[in-house]
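Hi F.,

I've been meaning to write this up properly since the lab meeting, where we talked about keeping a consistent format for the predictions we share between groups. The idea is simple: the sequence comes first, exactly as it goes in, then the structure tokens exactly as they come out, then a line or two of notes. No screenshots and no reformatting. I'm using this chain as the first example so we have something concrete to point to.
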Amino acid sequence: MERRPVEISQQALERQQQICAQIRTAWEQTGRVPRAFVDTYGCQQNEADSERIRGMLRACGYEITDTEEGADCIVINTCAIREHAETRVYGNVGALVHTKARHPEQKIFLCGCMMGQKQVVARIRSSYRHVDGVFNPHELWRFPELLQTVLHTGRRVFAADQTEGNIAEGIPVVRASTLRAWVSIMYGCNNFCSYCIVPYVRGRERSRRPDEILSEVRSLLSSGYRELTLLGQNVNSYGKDLPDGMDFAALMASIASMPGEFWLRFMTSHPKDATFRLFDTIAQYPAICRQFHLPFQSGSDRILRAMNRHYDRASYLSLVDYGRSLMPDLVLTSDVIVGFPGETEEDFADTLSLIERVRYDALFTFIFSPRAGTPAAAMDDPTPKEEKNRRFDRLCELQNSISQQIHQGYVGKTLRVLADGTDGASVTARTEGGRLVRLPADESLVGQFLDVTITGSTTWSLVGQPAANQEK
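Output, unedited:
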């Protein structure tokens, strides 16, 4: 069934802006500037959402602080992907009872993917009475209204109705960096991988209109941003719900054609929707980084079917081979799950052999974490935890060895990097492929593209020197 994006009306968004102004005026009348703290768990999409939450808080008159102690408003943006993340959230939320005891007027809100689960909302309601408000990702645009209700009435609010999701344009943003920017191009997911909670808590896929995205990108570039990352739960399926026919490759080409020196990245991709045309686009435009994060999750076709991933080992490898035929220097990274229910030693061996075949620059590795409400949570899982841990260690040992060999191959080469910060006496930078480089240089170089000669390497990073005859 076709689903049209549900775009929040301009009138409704203007109402939220008016509420921000009312809250700001009320604080001004007290003669002091309130402070707010936003804590973020999980993925880059959550980071982007937190930037919008900070934007709304600033519009309400709050100063953004980096600590919960003494903050007038605390917002915790949660992640539901793995059990460990949820456990950390519960522990940290529980500890806030002490900060609220020291600052009784403090208002505490929980949002993000955990709040898209009914059982979590029920637990917060009954066991965490010091939490003033809850809202799920679909209700984020209404945060000023929810905040005002709590401030005026003292009542707790729970905005966690289940919907298919929406798109809200024009929400103010306070970005975490003046160098790099996240640009959400779509929300939600239609894939329903058997282990993943995301479609249940973030709704179905909704693509932003191309004109809105391109306008945001132009504004960022004119403001001096040097690196943009396009975000979506599955960026490859961008545009399938839009009437104009623009797909992800075309969107990338439109952005990469814009004037200026900048890098364009994207994440995350699903292999079933990755196309040869997308690789062609990456190869064609210098602004698009030759880096592709392409999660494979398992090297076993049997496990991929159980995961409901809709591709097999052969089709995945055909994408890798095509990309590298166009771009031999393509940096590939991926996600992999160890210990999926029913995974045998043979299945795990298939995963190791795929890693050896592809030779990823880096992997994000996870031991399977059952999520309530997903099909995988109900699957028979006979493999002992100790065996899963042993497999995980073997996989990490293999990948660390490969990463170290790849990094050693950079020594002596001169690479283009973007200097992005400092670490002690070193300037930190990232290559086009996302590899971390440390170099002795003046911090005044932060924010600039540099040519760097690589002089050393470790498993996880590179060491370099600014190349001679650097252009000023």
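Notes:
DSSP finds 13 helices and 19 strands in the chain.
The first strand starts at residue 35 and ends at 40.

If this format works for you, I'll send the rest the same way.

G.
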